[in-house]
Specification:
Largest sheet: none
Radius of gyration: 36 Å
Structural class: mainly alpha
Order of helices and strands: HHHHHHHHHHHHHHHHHHHHHHHHHH
Number of strands: 0
Helix content: 55-70%
Length: about 450
């Protein structure tokens, strides 16, 4: 090779040397003849005949790809995809997402081929990272075949890490507001999330429950989710709420139920209220779960449901039972507010008074004497005053020792309320006196 600064790479001319040109046109027999005869004897040059093997290489190399090269490329892409500024350009690169999907589906789902498993995990990990960018979420969720491949891995891949990544992809894509309705209406996606809620991997369960509470943030989804598989999602969330040893999974399940209760339609309320043991499970979590977030979300879910479940709905007695049980928890006012809300409607008052234990619960709340319990006391006294407005409830209330004790003790007590809030204290005293006046005829 000769140096040429105007040709080739780094000033190196990549043309074949002139002295070797003749060898291209000489076959093996002619070359041997020249060597045996006089070297000065002229022979007509003949072009060497080429077979397909000479051009394409050995049959073993035809059309093959080096697996090691693919693995290294996927590793590089996995690192690059973690860079925020690179996420969008990578996702927009023509053919990249399709190539990743190809690697995700072509690999045999076997626990024994470590190289293939690593390549498949790296491929879906790149999708996980790309789905973190807001600019990519909509594009990825509508990319042909992407959700199908992710769902397939989530359901059938034997690797825990691969299923975890599949759950993260679904969760990341669900965070985009524009994707929520589309994803809920995709075939098998909700079934897949139910399946993942009981995965052996705690990380997978956590991500799947997070995806559900995210999808439940949209009003249009709650009815679909609450009736899916005859309440299959509600039942799965209920079991996670009660039994999952991972705090974050239980918190996510409680938040999902809260979001469904808050963003509800009439169908959602009916499906949740009529689901066996759901209301009781929420009340149980309020009392027994050692996570403050689980207790708070469960109590708020009951509060929101209490705003929409009323007599004579079939599930109203179950709601009253859940509220009666849960009102033992006094860290927030959610349950007391729910009881106050229930008592504001006249059709609820008689069922409330007749419900076993409910008046006892209100009396206990009304007798709380800690300065931090003022809000709870006010809610309970307000509920009692409203219940006493119904003529049909007065006889039962007048004969209830706890109710009369709470009203009389609170009426003549000067402690338990914030002294600086005179107006609120005066209003509360007026409520108690009004309740006693309503009940006086039956005392």
């Amino acid at each position: 090779y000769k140096n040429d600064s105007n040709n080739g790479i780094n000033g190196v001319n990549l043309q074949r040397p002139q002295d070797d040109i003749g060898s291209l046109f000489v076959d093996a027999d002619t070359e041997m003849g020249i060597r045996n005869d006089d070297i000065f004897q002229f022979k007509e040059p003949q072009k060497k005949s080429m077979t397909p093997g000479d051009y394409y290489g050995d049959d073993s190399d035809c059309g093959s790809v080096c697996p090691l090269a693919v693995q290294k490329i996927l590793k590089i892409l996995r690192y690059f995809s973690r860079v925020l500024s690179a996420m969008e350009p990578l996702a927009q690169q023509v053919g990249l997402v399709d190539s990743l999907l190809y690697q995700m589906v072509k690999r045999p789902h076997s626990l024994y081929d470590e190289d293939d498993n690593a390549a498949r995990v790296d491929a879906i990990a790149v999708i996980v990272n790309l789905a973190c960018a807001e600019e990519n979420k909509i594009m990825l969720v509508y990319h042909p075949g992407l959700l199908d491949v992710v769902v397939n891995i989530a359901n059938f891949d034997p690797l825990d890490e691969a299923r975890e990544h599949a759950a993260i992809v679904i969760m990341n894509l669900a965070y985009a507001e524009e994707n929520k309705v589309h994803m809920v209406n995709q075939d098998h996606l909700l079934d897949t999330l139910i399946h993942l809620l009981f995965d052996v991997s705690p990380f997978t369960r956590r991500y799947a429950s997070a995806a559900l509470f995210t999808l439940a943030c949209t009003y249009a989804n709650t009815a679909v989710m609450s009736r899916h598989c005859d309440g299959g999602i509600l039942e799965a969330l209920r079991k996670v709420l009660l039994n999952d040893p991972i705090d974050e999974a239980r918190v996510n399940a409680a938040e999902a139920l809260f979001n469904m209760a808050r963003n509800n339609s009439d169908d959602t309320v009916e499906n949740m209220g009529n689901h066996p043991k759901l209301l009781a499970s929420l009340a149980h979590s309020v009392l027994t779960d050692y996570s403050a977030e689980v207790r708070a979300y469960s109590a708020r879910a009951l509060e929101w449901l209490a705003a929409d479940i009323h007599h004579p709905m079939v599930c109203h007695p179950a709601l009253l039972k859940a509220l009666t049980t849960a009102c033992q928890w006094t860290k927030t006012t959610c349950i007391a507010e729910a009881l106050k809300m229930q008592s504001s409607l006249s059709e609820n008052r008689k069922p409330m008074v007749e419900h076993d234990g409910l008046l006892d619960a209100l009396a206990v709340l009304a007798l709380l004497d800690d300065v931090n319990d003022d809000e709870l006391k006010i809610c309970a006294i307000t509920a009692l005053e409203r219940l006493s407005k119904e003529v049909s409830t007065r006889q039962i209330m007048a004969r209830h020792e706890g109710v009369i004790t709470a009203l009389t003790k609170a009426t003549f007590s000067r402690t338990g309320f914030d002294e600086d809030d005179n107006e609120r204290g005066a209003t509360t005293l007026l409520l108690m006196k009004t309740a006693l006046k309503n009940l006086a005829e039956y005392l």
